[in-house]
């Protein structure tokens, strides 16, 4: 089961990192928010945009 989880995480990382070896902060936040069950993700995105300079 650990191998499956690691493979899924790798695929998800590649998706959100757009094929790069590292991920921009904004993409990491998108990855985290993608799997939340919160109804008000837009409020979280507003906070992310205020704290992370564009393109990081």
General description of the model:
The chain is mainly α. It has one domain (2-51). 64% of the residues lie in helices and 0% in strands. It contains three helices and no strands. The chain has helices at residues 2-16, 25-34, 41-51. Helix 2 runs antiparallel to helix 3. It is flat. The mean pLDDT is 83. Keywords: Membrane, Repeat. Its main location: mitochondrion. It is found in: Mitochondrion inner membrane.
Shape: flat
How far the N terminus sits from the C terminus, by CA atoms, comes to 33 Å
Percent helix, as a range, is 55-70%
Total count of strands: 0
Count of separate DSSP helical elements: 3
Compressed to H and E, one letter per element, the order equals HHH
Category from helices, strands and their pairing? mainly alpha
Radius of gyration: 13 Å
What is the average of the pLDDT values? 83
Domain tally: 1
Strand content: under 5%
Biggest pleated-sheet summary: none
What low-confidence regions span 5 or more consecutive residues with pLDDT below 50? none
Task: Pick out its properties.
single chain, 56 residues, mainly alpha, 0% strand, MICU1/2/3, membrane
Compact overview of the structure:
With 56 residues, this protein is mainly α. It is built from three helices and no strands.
Indicate the topology.
Layout: H1 2-16, H2 25-34, H3 41-51
Helix pairs in contact: 2-3
């Amino acid at each position: 089961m650990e191998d499956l989880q690691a493979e899924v995480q790798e695929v998800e990382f590649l998706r959100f990192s757009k094929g790069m070896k590292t991920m921009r902060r904004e993409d990491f936040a998108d990855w985290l928010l993608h799997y939340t069950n919160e109804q008000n993700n837009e409020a979280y995105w507003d906070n992310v945009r205020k704290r992370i300079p564009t393109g990081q």
